[in-house]
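Entry 12.
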Amino acid sequence: MSDFANPVYHKIIRIWLTGTMVIFFFCTFCQAKDLQLQQARSYAGKEDIKGWVMSEKLDGIRGYWDGSRLLTRKGLPLHPPPWFIKNFPAFELDGELWSKQGDFEFIQSVVLDAEPGPGWETINYHIFEVPNQNGTFFHRLARAKAWFKSHPTPHVRVIRQTLIQDKSDLDRFFLDVTSRGGEGVIVKDPNMPYHTGRSAHVLKVKKARDMEGLVIGINKGKGKYENAMGSLTLKLENGVIFKLGTGFTDRVRNNPPAVGTTVTFKYHGFSKNGVPKFASFLRPRAD
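Predicted 3D structure (tokens):
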């Protein structure tokens, strides 16, 4: 019997391939480094936003183009089909990979798949910033517009920005976006130079506030959830630790997010100890 016909040989090859894939993905994850990105603070309603610009906040997967690769916000490489990034520039772009409102789970499954599938044909790249460029926000966006005008790419859009003359403009726009099922609005000071981190010059406007936490524990349920997850122990960016126990479907309770997963939850203010009040689970984030 030749080696190729030997079932033991086949088993060894399968084990070797599996081990190689595990090592590859582990090394990829370890080499990933959280990107220094621009992040929005929550709008309180008291800020002077006259002369700022606003746009719809798209609920998709953030995609950072570093000039040669498309990365998640955590620095992990995405795997779009070659045609998707064929006409992308050598300079950086920041945007959202998005299809339509209320489609987050589908977008996440397509964009984070290691093997690019046909779902990418429904995904568009919506540019909201051009990092590390000089000039105002309008000047930075103009560079992306000029590039894609001379390198037409149907699935790329530069997000339209609308000038805010007074707060009533934002109120009307927010009502229009949310009435269509949109997540919210981003308002931004267009005169600021490019910067990273959470900024008082970039604000998100939403019906209910949301934030993210890292799962550091899975707690057993009681009563009807005796054989399922009862709550998650989360650690916030500022170090606050608390238990999140509401908003879960039975499916999530029976298959809870693993320790180390980042989850999004909504809340209404904070306690005196900095714990989110009336926190309710929304979804896990894999990006």
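Annotation: The chain has two domains: 41-206, 209-285. Residues 17 and 128 are 40 Å apart (CA to CA).
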